[in-house]
Every structure is written in C-alpha cells, then in structure tokens.
Design brief:
With 467 residues, the chain is α/β, with parallel strands linked by helices. It is built from twelve helices and 18 strands. The chain is globular and about 65 Å long. The structure holds ligand 9MR.
Amino acid sequence: MKTVRSVRTMVAFAATIVLSTAMAVAVANSASAASTLGAAAAESGRYFGAATNSFMLNRQPHATVLNREFNSIVAENEMKWYHTEPNQNQFNFTAGDQLIAHARARGMTVRGHTLVWHSQQPQWARNMSGTALRNAMINHINRVAGHWRGQIHSWDVVNEAFADGGSGARRDSNLQRTGNDWIEVAFRTARAADPNAKLCYNDYNTDGINAKSTAIYNMVRDFKSRGVPIDCVGLQSHLGTSLDPTYQQNIQRFADLGVDVQITELDILQGSNQANMYGQVTRACLAVARCTGITVWGVLDPDSWRTGANPLLFDGNGNKKPAYDAVLNALNAGGNPTPPTSAPPATTAPPATTAPPATTAPPATTPPPPGGGCSATVSMNSWNGGFVATVRVTAGPASINGWRVRLTVPSGASVTNAWNADRSGNTGAVDFTNVSYNGQVGAGQSTEFGFQASGNGSIPTPGCTAS
Ligand code: 9MR
C-alpha cells in the first residue's frame, strides 16, 4: 500500500531544511501561531486527526499526545465490519462507543472507518454471495451508521473498491460480484441511516493523477450527475520517499467535482525526505479550499501498522519529530479557508441528538405553507457556546423542485458546518438552498437540513421560497 518513488537529491533536501528553519523562526515570532496540530488546522476551518484504538486511550505516552495534539480521531480497526458485526445481526459497538465518548468529551470529531470493505469482513460475510450478501451489507450499514447517527463527522462508506494498476477497473470481491451498483446502494443506504454524516469513498495509491484515481474520479462524477449521495473522497496517502508532483492537482480535480477531499491515513516512510513530504502534503491540502482535514494513521511510530517504517509524527517516547514541525509550521502558515458548506465542526461537540431521515411526513402542528410554496421551521439543540439547528422544509399543496430558506443566525453566532443544504455565508442572514438530492419535495411532504454553529441565541421562524 506504499507509494515509493525515487529519493530526491540531497540538494533539494538541504534547501528544504533551510526553508523550514526559516519558516519555523517566522512562525515562532508570530503571536497567532497555534501550538498544536488541531488548533493550527482549526484556524483555517480544518481538522487534524489520528487513528487510534480504544485500548490505547489510556496508554502513555499515546494518550497524552493524542489528547493534546488532535481534534479528530478515527478507529484504526474497531468500526470495521468484522469488529462491529462479528456474527450476523449481532452487533458490538463497545469499542466504537468508547472512542466516540473519548472524542466528544474533548471536543474532537470522529471519522467513521469503514462501513463496507472487501477486507476485514467477518467470516460469515466472507462466506456469502449474491442477494444474501447484498442484504447483509444493507443491514450492516443501517445498523452501524444508525447506531452512531449524528456522531460521525465523515464515514468511509466504501473502502478500497478499485483495483491497483492501470486497468481502472473495480477490484474483484464478493461485494463486487453482487452487482456493479453495490457502491451506490451503500451510499444511498448510509445517507438514509445518518443524514448528517459526510459520506466518503476512501482508497490508497490515489495520491496523484493516475489510472486508479482517475477511475474513482469518473465514479464520483457519475454519482454527482445522477444524484447518488457522495460528499467526500478520502486519499489515504500511505507514502514512500517522494510525493507525486500531481498530488495537489489531484486533490483539486476532486474538489472541482463538488466533493470535499480528506487526507485519511497519512503516514510517510522515515528517511531524509520525511519531514519535507509531510510539509508538502499539508500545504497541498491547505491550498485547496475543499480539502477539509488530514488524519495520520497512528500517533507514535511504534503504533504504526508499518513496522519499522517509523512513518508518523512522534517517536515512541512521544517526542515531536522534524516531521511534526514541518506539519505545524505549514498549518500555521495558513491556507485557503474551507468553504462554508464543507467546514467541519473542528473543535465543538457533535450534536447530542440526531435528526430524522431526510424526507418524512410533517408533524400535525406544522403550519400550512403560505402562498402555496414552502415553509420552514427550526428546532435547536443548544449547549453552552454552540448549537445544532435542524430545519424542516415543508412543501405546500403543490410539490416543489427546489427551495431556499433564509434564516437569521443569532447575533455573535457563526455557522461552522451544514448538511443537506448549500449556504451563502455563516453569520447574520444566511440563505440555505437545497442540494441535488433533496430539492424535490412532494405536496405536504418535508425534508430536513441542519447546521452546527458556535454561539448561542434563538432563531426566528425563517422564510422559505420554492422553485
Ligand atoms: O492499520 C490497520 C491494521 O492495524 C490492520 O491490521 C489492517 C488490516 O487490514 O488494516 C490497517 O488499516 C488499513 C485501513 O483500514 C485501510 N487502508 C489501509 C490501512 C493499512 O493497511
């Protein structure tokens, strides 16, 4: 799973050291420089996360570093199919619940990894095929995404479904053999099970423009054109000794399709280019507004699945490596802020309650929409310093093909993240418009979108315009 390319020259490396030293000095002199990865990433609306395991949460020095540096976590293994459904229809959420509780207590967000994957399936699923496997997959997504509904920032809905090499083909697997539509079925199922989570496709050896990343690009473009719900692409970025020169360009082309990009499993072989490459990857993400976060695949070098590669940011004693400084300096140097619709709720608690499915009948008390277009109502779930608002859009006596809700965010409050709608800004009067999959609402029916904000206050009944 490594992308290993030729080592760059020592001249380039020496130049980089001089440069990064100069940057370190500049950053050290700056009053606004954040001193942790999470805080520095949050300055531009991004998260910086790490993979961990429930059994490591109290292990030192892992725990100290994890809690101090990161504002997002992902389960390295404990949300995979074999772990969450070891026997068919018998679910085990204990470790995942622990990870989520740990994150929420510290204001970290959680990436979900992964709902469906050809690998690390439980034995019972590996033995299955055809309709039985397809139904088992759907049930698994419903139950797992449903259990953690509202608590996952982004789900890797499908992991590693494309073949390596130049074919651009899907990887053969028991899932693939259930029919080529298994990926879109997985995404549609996940959307219904957790409408608030961003839904990602995640893969490796996609860290530049190549046949595999292009095949994924084509799938995402097709999904967007047909309204299959996909919000993000995860580039795992298990890297070797040099970065593909098209790394940033590749991120940008996915972003241009209208999905977020996340660097999901970053680790880089230790060697003379490690720190430089960590800086390059960080800067590439920061340069693209829709690259919304970076996750490293472990905290301390000895935690890594790449035994002996020492590919992470901290050594076994929890000391910061030069790679750490390269990342922190790059984050502190700033980048393109993430756009309003894709900014993750970097440092605030996720919603305490969850939203109902996207399209449901309105409650009996919903007032009839004036003018036959649509109406909107807001419910809020607040805590000290933040809230989640759920907005219900109800069509009038005629069905509608699109909607726009204008609402006033409380004075001093600012929207950090929205789902199931595009939005025009984050303070004051903000317009939310439907996205491709929820513009059509039948007569008298409802759809919901939501957003998270920092600040407190109430929201007056918003206006709704149908189109
Ligand atoms: O880091 C994970 C390791 O502990 C597991 O043994 C391995 C099993 O396949 O999975 C590793 O994580 C993988 C991730 O889930 C998907 N992308 C590749 C990662 C490294 O193999």
